Amino acid sequence: MSAATTTLGQLMERNVSEVFGEPDPGRRRRAIAELYAEDCAFYDADGRSIGQAAISNRVGRILDGSPPGFAFSLVGPAEVIHDLGRLRWQAGPAGAPPVMSGMDVAILANGKIRTVYTFIEASVVADSTDAP
Questions:
Q1: Is position 131 within any domain?
Q2: pTM
Q3: What's 110's domain CATH number?
Q4: What string of pLDDT tens digits covers the 132 residues of the chain?
Q5: DSSP codes of every residue in the chain
């Protein structure tokens, strides 16, 4: 595994905890400045955010719209091929089963995250009426 591959995986994993897990705007902006390229972009089903400030604002809106105690966690380690990585995550109330899952796909440039595409995969809450 190359140094770039290891770096992208670590950046993606830190993005979940230090950016999407950070409610404080100042700490989140500092984490984004460390993890993301200046000309970065974030894409999800709701649109795009271009630049570090726009990404911080978008994450802030996501966190503000989540219930208290809502937390993101990794499903497993990031998988990386050259400068492209993917990372599966889940989210839900801290200490409870996750209510959603997703996957981030990221592109690395010059040792930082250049672009992130986020896919929401599905609700992971099982309906008890579906049990056999």
A1: no
A2: 0.86
A3: 3.10.450.50
A4: 555 557 889 999 999 999 999 999 999 999 999 999 999 999 999 999 999 999 999 999 999 998 888 999 999 999 999 999 999 999 999 888 999 999 999 999 999 999 999 999 866 554 434 444
A5: --HHHHHHHHHHHHIIIIITT---HHHHHHHHHHHEEEEEEEEETTEEEESHHHHHHHHHHHHHTSPTTEEEEESS--EEETTEEEEEEEEEETTS--SEEEEEEEEEETTEEEEEEEEEEE--PPPGGG--
**What is the bridge-based pairing of β-strands 84-93 and 70-74?**
antiparallel
Domain that holds residue 68: 3-122
- CA diameter of the chain: 51
